[in-house]
Every structure is written in C-alpha cells, then in structure tokens.
C-alpha cells in the first residue's frame, strides 16, 4: 500500500551571498495512514523546517531546493499558492508550538474556526459555527458556546493549545504536523495536552508527523522515529527498536542524556560538544567530532542511510550493535 | 467599559482645563489690554469702565473663572487689533480651515490607506518600491517648498489652477462654503494636495511597516497553515491588528492638518484660522492667539478621546490592561 505521505530527497537551503547553506540534506521518509512518525533532534537540526517545507510555509529566504512530496498519491510540491491553500488545513493540519502567539489577539476564538472552515467548505455561517462549537467541546473546553465568543486572552495557555489543536483538526485533514505541540506548556499541562493528542489520534485515525526534541513524548506517541542531526536523517526505525536499541551513536547519546522515569538508571551523560551551525558543518559524518567511535573514514566520507529495509536504517560507519541503549 | 470610558473622559477634561489655564495666562500676562483697546484720548472714566468690563479689578482666580465661563458660552474676549469679538473673527475663518482640512484628510485616506496596504502585502513589487521612493520626497520636503513648487508648475507655468484665495464662496448663513462653486473647488486643489502630501506618505509608510510586521507574526503563519484564504488573512486577520496604531496616528495627523495648516494657508493666502493666527502674532493680538491655541488643543484632545473610546471596539484587551 502506498504511504499517505512520501517525502523523497527533500533539501532546504538558506541562500547566502557566497554559497547556499544546507539546512536539510536529502531527507526521505514516509508516513503511513494513521501512523505517528516522530522527528527528533536538537534545535537547529532541521526538524521544524521539514514540517514547514511540507506545507510550503518556509519563511523566506529559506527555500526548498530539491525533493518530491507526495500526499495520498498526489504531488504537492510545486503547487500554485492557490492550490496549496486548499491543501493546508484541509488535507494537512498544522499544530503550532506556542499557543500564546499562534492565536490572533483581536479575533474571537469562534472567528478563528469560522474563517478556517469557510475557507475550505461551501457551508453556511451557522453550520461553520455549529462545527466550531463542536470542536471547542471536543478538545475538552467547558462551555463551548461561551468560548466561541471569547478572545484568546480570556483563555489559559493550556486551553489555547487545545484550541490550536482543534483548529488544526477542524477540517478533518488526513494528517497533522505537530511542531513541538507541548514544549511551550507547563509540565502538568503537557501531560493533558499529550493525552488529548493521543485520544484524538485514536478517535479520528489522523496520521501525525510529530516534531519534538523530547524523547519522553516520542516514546509515548510515536510508532516510528526519525533522528535528525545537522540537517540529515541519521537513523530511522520503529520507536521500540530505535529507543530501545539505538544503532547510531548520536541516538544513543541523546537517550543517555535524557532523564528517565525508570529512575536510578544511572547518571545522565551529556554528549560532548554541541551541534555545528549551518555554516560550518564538518566533513564526512557531521557527528564525527563529537563521536566516541569516530575513525578516519567518518571524517572523509558521508555515511549513507542503510539498514534492513528503508523503514529501519542508520547512517553510520560504526553502528552500535550491543543491546544496552 | 464604563470605567474605561469615564477614566478617559476625566483625563481629557483635566488636560482641557490645563490648556485653558495656559491660554488664560497668555492673555492675562502678555500685552497691555488697556493700551491696546483704549483710544489715545480716553478719559479716566473710560479707563475705569473698561477695567470693569474686562474684570481686571478682580483677583486672578475670579478672572480665570470668568474666562472659563466665557469659553463655555462662546465669549472669547475682544481682539486687540480689530476690536471685534474674537468669537466672530474665529467663526468667520473657521469654515475655510475646516474645509481645507477635510479635503486633505480625504486625500490622505483615499490615497494613503490603499497604497499602504498594497506596499505592506507586496513589499518587493516594483510599484511598492516606486511608491516608497517617491514617498521619501513627501516626508522630507518642507510644506512651503511643496506649495511653492506646485504654484510654480500649475499656476505660473501651466496656468491651470489659482495660486491664492478660496475662489467664490457661498454664504449658507452659518457657514461660508467654497464647495458649491467651481472656482472654490479649483482653489482648493493645490492647498489640499500641499497639506496632505506629508500625511499621505506618512500613512503609507506606517501602514506598510505595520502590515509587514504583523505579516511575520505567528498567528498569521498559523492562519496560512490552516489554509485561510489570502483575502481573509490580509483584510481581517492582519489589517485589524494594524488598526490601533493606524487610527491613533490618523487622528493625531488630522489634528496636525488643522494645526499646521498655518504654513499652507500662508503660502496660498488661504483665509483660514492659520493665517488669522499669523496676523495675530504679528500684532501681538493676545486674545486671538490664546483662543486659537485653546481651540487647537481642544480639537486634539477630542480626537484623542474619540480614538481611545474606539479602542475597545477593535481590541478588547485594552479594557483588561487598564482596568
């Protein structure tokens, strides 16, 4: 069966006067129907750009330099702005990170919904209103009728994020891209919003491209995970395998640097050094200056992403084989 | 809303009183009304009578109250120069200035707002770049230079439009208007353009900057990510966010149009308040000067009050922040 979303050789560049800086380098991945694919990586690895590039919403001067994007069997790269408008929201929803800045302060909550719905469906305002109220209630806000007429500043951060999620889902898209959906929230609120996302995913069967740096969120939500480092996918695989027995030294480093609830699992081990910026990506495997396993070849040649099959692969000259994460 | 409105109104009243007091200080401390108003052969009785009429024998506080009362009922005192009531002088000149100001405002709105929106949405287009280039001239050229240039081209060289006066006016009894005759309209063109040029460019640049800033905000990106139609995004989601500063500045600019029509009126010999003000300064006619200043101050304050009262209609958050 063809995947819902098929991203082939996607590259994103930041044009500079002398040369183009490569922010994402030949990334390929697929997202199945109803599947949750996690994109994980440090900030600056290119994960948010990947999400923005899929719906053609990169902020200039960033631009897509190569790649094919197929949604439900149809190419969606290279659509006209008017055609892309019909894809955004209707076929691909997008959950933004910061609920405090994602909602328009001078419009009512209801107006956010009705403008979105009326842009995509040929329905009456009364019907748009009915659907909006339905969604406000569905994401767990009390008094949806009242909320409809309230302004964003009347709601708390967690409530606003629920609204953002409802807005992304209200046109019943095939998939949503959730860019750090819980990062800006209080820890206690994070758990609620995460549960809401999981419930909605279970009820609607919407596929999710989950972008986060939080491996804990990843473990709870994702079916499969892709790890990004300095603009390249370095490892991709089923969440259980990848988080349980990572093959790439960077993935292992990330896991060892993440606090675990299983407690007493040992000390946290930070990865030495920091991710290079776009202007100075090292030769060969970009991770080699920080990698304990690096040898001559890592400096000279870029490892290819390969593995048992396309959906379970690692880009490393010296992959980790022992079981311990 | 009630608390918000009453607080705004109270502030306005306080400032208006302060302006009136400053105006009063001008009249009561500068110039010598007796020397200006009495004929050279006046008797001591005339002198005493005038002192009583002008309440000069009363304490300062009483005189200020009398002055305030006069302002409220339209008794603005007597001009030192023409010995006519100031109210009559002002009323005679007011229509010219008001008509000029509204003509300028209309040009500002009809030209400035659409061009500003266009330049904000398509900042990289050739037209937007051309508009921005030309608008530098509008911002930097002083009003009197613009006026003189326009006269040189359209009146002297081409002979298309008159260079001075209001043309023929029609007296409606309470209001002398130049808008009912062809010559009145023709006379209005050059001064109105001159007066509005700065405002137009100012409005264009401000709306453009505001829209570009809002265009980069997360909520506009989110609206685009939801596939909201471009038309809705710009004219509802973005424009509404720029309205607060734009309305504020437009109202103050309208105040400026009235207040600073002085220069334009002088260049075009436009018989309005501005030229009356200049004549009064030349002859140290304190009552006219002070009333002019009070009227301009009051116009500014009223515009400001209207703007502030309109804020909650646009952005509900002002009620919460100030309550």
From TrEMBL, chain A:
Bilayer topology annotation: Peripheral membrane protein
Domain of life: Bacteria
Intracellular or extracellular location(s): Cell inner membrane
Keyword Cell membrane in record: yes
KW Lipoprotein (keyword) present: no
InterPro entries: AAA+_ATPase (IPR003593), ABC_Ni/Peptide_Import (IPR050388), ABC_transporter-like_ATP-bd (IPR003439), ABC_transporter-like_CS (IPR017871), Oligopep_ABC_C (IPR013563), P-loop_NTPase (IPR027417)
Keyword set, alphabetical order: ATP-binding, Cell membrane, Membrane, Nucleotide-binding, Transport
Record domain ABC transporter: where: 5-255
Gene Ontology molecular function: ATP binding
Record-stated family: Belongs to the ABC transporter superfamily.
Name of the protein this chain belongs to: ABC transporter ATP-binding protein
TrEMBL record, chain B:
Subcellular location field: Cell membrane
Domain of life: Bacteria
UniProt domain ABC transmembrane type-1: residue ranges: 94-307
A family per Pfam: BPD_transp_1_N
SUPFAM superfamilies to which the protein is assigned, alphabetical: MetI-like (SSF161098)
Membrane topology annotation: Multi-pass membrane protein
PROSITE patterns: ABC_TM1
Transmembrane segments: 12-31, 100-121, 133-156, 184-204, 242-269, 289-314
Record InterPro entries: BPD_transp_1_N (IPR045621), MetI-like (IPR000515), MetI-like_sf (IPR035906)
CDD domains on file: TM_PBP2
Keywords in alphabetical order: Cell membrane, Membrane, Transmembrane, Transmembrane helix, Transport
Primary location recorded for the protein, binned into one broad class: membrane
Family label: Belongs to the binding-protein-dependent transport system permease family.
UniProt protein name: ABC transporter permease
Highest classification ranks of the organism: Bacteria, Pseudomonadati, Pseudomonadota, Alphaproteobacteria, Hyphomicrobiales
